[in-house]
Design goal:
The protein has one domain. The protein has 1 helix and no strands. It is rod-shaped, with a radius of gyration of 39 Å.
Amino acid sequence: MADESAIDQAVKRLALALDSLDAAVERRSEGDRSEEGLVSQLHALGVDRTRLAAALDGETARSRRLESTNREIAQRLDAAISGIQSVLDGNE
C-alpha cells in the first residue's frame, strides 16, 4: 500500500509538472505570436515611413517650384506696374 501511495503521489506530481509545462508552452506560443505581430507592425510602420518620406520629398519639390513661380510672377507684375506707372506719368 505504501508503494501505491508513493506511486499516486509521483503521478500527481508528474501531472502537475506536465500541466505547468503545458502552461509554459502556451505562454511561449502567445509570446511568439505577439512578437510576430510586433514585427509585422514594425514592418508596416517602416513601409508607411518610406511612403510618407517620398510624399514629403515630392511636396517639398512642388513647394519650391511654386515659390519659384511666385517670385517670377511677382517680378513680372512689378515690371508691368512700373511700365503702367511710366505710361501714366508720361501722360500727365
